[in-house]
Design brief:
Elements lengths: L7 H9 L2 H25 L4 H23 L2 H26 L5 H7 L1 H29 L5 H24 L7 H36 L2
Length: about 210
């Protein structure tokens, strides 16, 4: 008896349409928030805007998971946009402010991994900007185009890969331990938030295709 082959597309849909995937992503991203605050405070990086950002993430993650569970599409779109912009603002401040203001000798001393980490943060910022713009283009259009949707989904997967790379590199950096742990937990939180966003994006895509009769 021949075994049925499961396509990569079907595996993708099965993973991101699973309620368990959304539950784990939401639970981990929420549980990591107080850890981020702890290490951010210990390293001296957590200020009032940073605390406000964590509170916004908490509210938006909880809202997005609830809207996924209850299939509230308008609320799902709003929470997705909110999370994307929340992370985009934080990443822009970090990549263009915190890291950019450090002496170049810091990265030279760390060697190749230092430059890869810096380039990775800039690339994450670029892809996040692209995903935000693409999200508006897709959902503002009267009829959704499959190519734009596929590009957006690939971009989110690329973001996940970049964040994983940063998680691997961060422990090798020669920054203070508290700062490294702060950066590591921050990226860990982003990893699971992007998984949650990918779940919402896929559901919204399927809904619009059905609505558009595709």
């Amino acid at each position: 008896m021949k075994r049925k082959r499961v396509s990569l597309s079907n595996r993708y849909k099965r993973f991101f349409l699973s309620e368990r995937t959304a539950l784990i992503a939401a639970a981990v991203s929420l549980l990591v928030l107080p850890v981020i605050y702890f290490f951010g405070t210990r390293s001296g990086e957590m200020d009032l805007p940073g605390t406000y950002d964590l509170l916004m993430r908490l509210a938006l993650i909880a809202t997005l998971f609830w809207s996924l569970k209850k299939h509230k599409l308008l609320l799902m779109q709003a929470a997705t946009v909110g999370l994307l912009f929340c992370m985009l603002c934080t990443q822009s401040q970090y990549a263009l402010g915190n890291l950019a203001n450090r002496d170049s000798e810091t990265y030279i001393t760390m060697g190749l991994q230092g430059f890869i980490f810096l380039a990775g943060e800039r690339m994450i910022l670029f892809i996040q900007s692209f995903v935000c713009i693409s999200h508006f283009i897709i959902h503002a259009a009267k009829r959704q185009e499959a190519i734009r949707v596929s590009v957006n989904q690939v971009s989110i997967l690329f973001l996940l890969a970049l964040v994983i790379v940063q998680l691997v590199i961060a422990p090798t950096l020669s920054f203070d331990l508290e700062y490294v742990l702060y950066v590591w937990t921050l990226h860990l939180d982003e990893l699971f938030i992007f998984i949650l966003v990918a779940c919402a994006e896929l559901i919204l895509m399927i809904d619009q295709r059905e609505f558009g009769g595709e």
